[in-house]
Amino acid sequence: MSDLSPADGAVLACATGHRFDVNRRGFASLVLGSRKLIGDSAAMLDARETFLEHGWYAGLRDALSGLVAPEQAQRVVDIGCGTGYYLRGVLVALGAAGAAGARGRPGEPVLRALAVDLSAAAVARTVRSGADASGVSTVGLVADVWSPLPIRDGAADVVINVFAPRNPAEFHRVLASGGLLAVVLPHPTHLQELRAAGLALDVHGNKTADLITSLAGLFELESTEDLSTVLSLAPADVAALIGMGPSSHHQAESEPTTAQDSPAALEERSEVTVAFRILGFRRAAQ
Ligand SMILES: C[S@@+](CC[C@H](N)C(=O)[O-])C[C@H]1O[C@@H](n2cnc3c(N)ncnc32)[C@H](O)[C@@H]1O
Predict the structure, then answer these.
(1) What string of DSSP letters covers 149-185?
(2) Which residue has its alpha carbon closest to ligand 1 atom 5?
(3) String of DSSP letters for 247-271
(4) pLDDT digits over 115-159, tens only?
(5) 27, 55, 163, 259: least surrounded by Cβ within 10 Å?
(6) How far is the CA of 132 from the centre of ligand 1 (A)?
(7) Where are the domains of the chain?
(8) Buried b (16+ CB within 10 A) or exposed e, 133-154
């Protein structure tokens, strides 16, 4: 398949005859191949939206936005966008930092965003909420990060990747020279109380070292920021936190996590550690 361009109607087409419809929800699905892959479900996205909109991770969103804002970036790609919570924060920060005042190519908006996720429901939510919250037009793409991404070489100034799978070679290819890759990882102490209670999955191994190794030769580590705090959560918040996480992939559809299901429902509030590492990587020239 060669480069895709808008064709007649809401269609993306390439010179060799591939055609992809842009649906009425404003995004195209370019998941290719037959691998059985599962992105986040609507129930997980509901839980994520409930939890995030409560503001529990606002500090993380602010820190990530603070990392990206000085970039003066005009093209932002979020890989594994989920509900778009972090993308919206980053776009607001970039707009406030002056990217919106910069000169774009004639006829194009100055600040543009691409929201990518394997889950069509996630992409739909991000596209729907993007323009409202940040005033920036957000285009959506359903795609698998493990496959070659249907994004042109050097099309992004910034790639953000928050608790989502990564493809180092593809991130390097789609970033422009000198571009920023901002990654958020869970710290080993993240959700330790829920793990001790058997309600969350383990944070495996040394994720930072694994990440740096996987990016070697493609990116240089430029910044690291650790955030950690203990939240005092009501039972409904705990249920949402569990419901939005990977452990809920392991639950049967017929067994959704609710405030009543959770042992935390027995208590008034639960103390839960949330701990993150935000890493900024500069694309290596090569
Ligand atoms: C833990 S969620 C994080 C979502 C969002 N970044 C946030 O922090 O709110 C991981 C996201 O990655 C997506 N995802 C999982 N596997 C993927 C893949 N192979 N390609 C693209 N996205 C994927 C899921 O659908 C989900 O939205």
Answers:
(1) PSS-TT-EEEEEEESS---HHHHHHHEEEEEEEEEEE
(2) 82
(3) GGGGS-TTS---TTTSGGGGSS-EE
(4) 999 999 999 999 988 756 666 778 999 999 999 999 999 999 999
(5) 55
(6) 22
(7) 1-25, 31-283
(8) ebebebbbbbbbbebebbbeee
Is 153 within 8 Å of 66 (Cβ atoms)? no
Pairing of strands 138-142, 112-117: parallel
pTM: 0.87
Taking CA atoms only, the protein residue closest to ligand 1 atom 17 is: 118
Token pair 């991000």 in the structure block, residue = 126
**CATH no., domain 31-283:** 3.40.50.150
Tokens 């008034």 belong to: 268
In this structure, what token pair is assigned to residue 85?
């919570």
List residues near ligand 1 (CB under 6 A): 37, 39-40, 48, 80-83, 85-86, 117-119, 122, 144-146, 162-165
